[in-house]
Amino acid sequence: MTRNCLRQIAFVLTAAAIMSGCTGAEARKSSFIARGEQYMASHDWQKARLEFRNALQIDPKDQKVQLLAAQAAERAGEYDEAAGRYRALLEQDRGNVAARTALGRLYAGGGLAAEAIKLAEEGLSARPDDAGLLAVRGVARAMRGDQMGAQQDA
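The structure assignment produced for this chain is given below.
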């Protein structure tokens, strides 16, 4: 075989290895997500949390998986982790209403009414009729003694 032929064979083998590695990573990620969703459906929050964390190791910027990981962590009682994941989602996308509502709910549940109100109001400026954000703000207002404001949000 000539050197040129050997180079072509080496190139083809390298390209095939790279392409199969990408496909393998995507397949593993999909598998982790599918298992995580199965665990969520069966209420095994800890195992779901781990599966989603594994998927995020492959693709840390996947917002869908980040939200699923945050929800699993929250349901598992890992509130600090859940809050961190919701905050990371909001850093990627300030308009993520699901993350904003969930983080506001965590803040209100943790007694951080002012932070919950701020989060809700930032979201309500773009979506003034969002029921989840209004609920968060209403609960936080009630915590601060603003019964009139809480009733308006309700």
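Interim note for the steering committee: The mean pLDDT is 88. The chain has eight helices and no strands.
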